[in-house]
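Journal club prep, notes for RB
We'll compare a predicted complex against what the paper describes. Inputs for the glutamic acid case:
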Amino acid sequence: MAVTLDREALAGTARAAAVGLAALDVRVVALTWVDNAGVTRAKAIPLDRLAGAAAWGVGMSTVHDVFLVDDSITESEHIGGPVGDLRLHPDLDALTVLAAQPGWAWAPVDRWTQNGEAYVADQRQFAKRAVERAKDAGITMRMAFEIEWYLGNEDGTPAAAGPAYGMTRLIEVSQYAQDVLTALTAQGVPVEQFHPEYAGGQFEISVSHTDPVGAADMVVLVRETIRAVSLAHGWRASFAPVPVAGKVGNGLHLHFSAWSGDGNLFSGGLGPYGMTGRGESILAGILERMPALIGLTAPSVSSRLRRVPQRWAGAYQCWGLENREAALRFIAGVKGAGPGAANAELKCCDASANPYLVVGAVAAVAAASAFAELRLPAEYQLDPSTLDGFTRPPLLPTGVEEALTALAGDEVLCDALGKELLNAHIAVHRAEAELFATRTDDEIAEAVRWKY
Ligand code: GLU
Ligand code: MG
C-alpha cells in the first residue's frame, strides 16, 4: 500500500510541538538526512516554519544523493545534475531538543517528491520499508550501534594522551565526558556505557537497542551531540573509519537481534549457543552475504584502511562466540540474564556507511534468510590471523570495487534498495575510489578526518 502524507494532521501535530518547543526557548530546528557518502547533511528552519515544513516539506535538490565525501558531485544513471527538487519532511516523532546547542531542536527527515510520493532513493524510507517487510514476514528486529570516535585537535593530534581503556584518559577529559553524557541523557538517549577506547584519543558510547530506524536516528543524534560538545571544549570529534592512518580506527558496530512475537530467535532454541532454527538461518544469511553487505556497511576507501586483521575491525568473513576478530560476533549474554540478552554484532561497519542503509540491508537479509533453513558453518574460536592459509577464513573484500560488484550482484539487496538508490550509492563510492586512487593512506585519512 502506498504511503501518503496527511498534511493537515502533520501541520496540527507540528503546531502543538512548536508550542512546547517555544516554551523551552527553542528557536531553530535542524533537519538532517544522511547521504550515500555517509555524510550528515542539514537544513535549518525557524521554529515558526515547523508546521509548514511538516505539512509541505522544505526544498532540497535531488543531487545530494550523488555528493562525495569532499563535496564534489558525481552522477548516476537516474540521479545527478542541477535539475530536480525534493521535499524534506521532519519526522515529528523523533523531534528532540538539542541539549548541547541552546535554542536548537533536531529532527531527521523523510524525503518526498513534489507530487507527494515517497522518494524512491530516500535511504530512511528504504530502511522503513525493509523493516516493515521483515515484520510482514514475522520477523521484528532490534538494533543498536556502538559509536566510536577520535577526540582531537584541529591539527589531528589527539586531545588526550592517557592509555587505552585508562582512567587517566577519562580524568583528562573529565568535564567533557560529563557534558557529553549529560547532554545525551537530557535528549532521552539511553546510554549504557562510555569508555576510553584502544587508539590514542579514542572514546566509545554504547546505547540500548531499539527499533532499527530509531537506532539509525540515534546514531545521527549522538554523533552531532558529541560533535557539538567537542567543539564547545575546543576539540573536534572524528567518527571517520581511520582518523589517523596506520592506527586502530573507529567502528560503527551494529548489534542486532531478531524476534518472533515475544521470542528472541537467537535464544532458547536447539542450534549453536541456543539459537533457534530461524535465528541461525538469519545469521548464516548475513555471513554468506557479507561481501555484498560491506558495499553498504563499510563502503568507502577509508573503510579499507580500517578493516585490517588484528584490529577487532571485522576483517574476516567468519563468525564466533565472543570472537572480536570475527566480522560476525555472537553474544549469548550472561547466564541467567534472560533471553533478551542474546544478539549478534556486525563488526564490518563504519561511519562512512549511511546508518539507514545498514539497518535496512540487515533487515532485508534477515527477512530473506529466516525461513531459508540455512546453517552456519563452523565457528572460529581463535584469532584467524594465527591460522595457516588452508584453515584461515577468507578476508572480506578489501577493494571498494569488489564490494560494490558483490552488492550489485546480490538479488535480495538490489531488490530491497531499488535501482535508483543502488545506482546512486554505487556511483558515489566508485567516484570516491577514483578521487583517492593516487593518494597515500595518510592523505586519505587527513582528507576525510573531520567529514564524518
Ligand atoms: N575500534 C575497533 C574497530 O575499528 C573496534 C574495537 C572494539 O571491538 O570495540 O572496529
Ligand atoms: Mg569499541
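Talking point for the session: The mean pLDDT is 96.
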